[in-house]
Every structure is written in structure tokens, then in C-alpha cells.
């Protein structure tokens, strides 16, 4: 589980070694100030949001500054509320709530890292283990590790009831949100009692559009990373790190769109896709 610290280190070393770090940090502060002004005057209206930028941050001091200023100005925001940060240390330091969800690697390892498991049931193995550990305090479920459509085959009444909501991390956010609302309704669950958490490549403009679309349909929340923790005059690094093997077994992330998958073994990806396809085409829904 080295993804978070490694990416944070790589990002900070890269930008610290740049000749223009001080200039970038000044542009970061200016852009952060403009974002806060937009939240105060209502230009941005996104409801509840959290800072998810540890992996992509400009530096520790930049992320720390963002968390601190968002907290200090939270009471002034017109129609948005800063909930907390996924950085547990900065949550403790700044007196805000640590906020996060399960990661793709959790589902990949739990569902695929056992040679006896059918990988098309990765979500079931992960959800089952999570509920056995946390009981009714389960938080938010991640849907797109092996596609959201396959996830919904396992996210039936028990899990949909026990988890407080679901997280979007790939694919069209509007299509995904509508699909999740329809799924909750099909199960007889009021979607107003569940949270749709969006976290895919968000800025405040995009989040505002998504919030306005789903407002009144379900609870809506956002996890915003790079646009809070590494918004400067330069382009941020576009780097990712995912687990590729567990217990000597290949594991893969499929995602809901091309380009966000991750695996070193193309033959395993083909096998996983065949397992998923067979399940989707042959398994009785609502078992």
C-alpha cells in the first residue's frame, strides 16, 4: 500500500527541484485565494466537499495551507461546506475531519489476490470483508474497479443499505449518478438518504455543474484533489500508481473508461474481462 506516500514524495521532489518552485507556490496561493472568493460569493456552489490532493500535491506546505484556509473561511461559504481532508495528519493538525473511502487496490487485492477467487466477484469479496470488519459503519463504496455495472450485481439490498453512499471515479458522472439513483430506487431505498461522492478530475466549475444537476435527487459530495492541492501556473504531473500483483497473482483495475485501467499482464486482463462478460451475460440478476 505504497501508492499514497510514493506519489506524494515524487510530486514534491519534482516541483521542489524545479527552478521556479517559489514562483509556483505564489501562483498556488493566488489561485487558492480566488477559489475561496468564489466559494464565498457563491460563484461555486457544490455543497459538501473534501480535499483529496495528497497524492498530487505541489508540496506539503501547499496542501497544509489549502486545508487551513478552507477551514478558516468555511463559515463564509455561500452554499458550500468544507468537510475535511483525506490527509489524516493534516486533519489532526488543522482540527478537521479525516475523510476518505476504500481504494481500488483494496478491491483488487481482496477480490483478485486469492487464486481461488473468481475475479468477476471482486466487489463481493471486498464488500463482504468490509462489512464483517465495520458492521454498520461502512462509509462509501467505490464502484468502478471492475466496472460499475459489475459492481451493481453485488451491491444489492444489504450492502446498499449498510454503506452510506458510493464514489464515482471514472466515466460520465451524470450517467453514473443517474444509474446509481435508479439502482437505489429499484432496491426500495430512498436516494435522498445516500451520498453520491464524485472524485474524478474535478475542479470547482465542474463540481458546481454536477451539484446543480443532482441537487434534490440525492445527497451530493465531492472529493477534490489536484485542483485544490496543486493548482498553479504550470501543469501538474499526471502520474498514477496501482498494485499489479498480490500473493504472486496478477490483479487488474478495469475502470469504466479506457485509459484508467492498470495491469502488467494483458493475458490476465483478457481473462478478467471474459469472467466479467460471462457473469454479466449469464448470471440471473437479483439472485
Percentage of residues in helical conformation: 40-55%
**CA-atom Rg in angstroms:** 19 Å
Please, how many helices?
12
Uncertain residue ranges? none
N-to-C terminal Cα separation, in Å?
34 Å
Task: Give the strand content.
Answer: 5-15%
- Note the overall shape: globular
Strand order of the main beta sheet, please?
Answer: 3-2-1-7-6-5-4
**Taking all residues together, what is the mean pLDDT?**
94
Structural class: alpha/beta
Biggest sheet: strands, sense, closure? 7 strands, parallel
| Number of E-state strands | 9
The SSE string, one letter per element, is: HHEHEHEHHEHHEHEHEHEEH
Commentary on this structure:
The mean pLDDT is 94. The strands form two sheets. The chain has a seven-stranded parallel beta sheet with strand order 3-2-1-7-6-5-4. 48% of the residues lie in helices and 12% in strands. β6 (195-198), α10 and β7 form a beta-alpha-beta unit. It is α/β, with parallel strands linked by helices. It starts with a helix and ends in a 5-residue tail after the last helix.
Which key features would you list for this structure?
287 residues; alpha/beta; 48% helix
Briefly summarize what is shown:
The protein has 287 residues and is an alpha/beta fold. It is 48% helix and 12% strand.
Topology:
Layout lengths: L2 H15 L3 H21 L5 E5 L8 H14 L6 E6 L2 H7 L2 E2 L5 H9 L9 H13 L5 E3 L5 H7 L2 H6 L2 E4 L4 H14 L8 E4 L5 H11 L4 E6 L1 H4 L15 E2 L2 E2 L15 H17 L5
Parallel strand pairs: 1-2, 1-7, 2-3, 4-5, 5-6, 6-7
Antiparallel strand pairs: 8-9
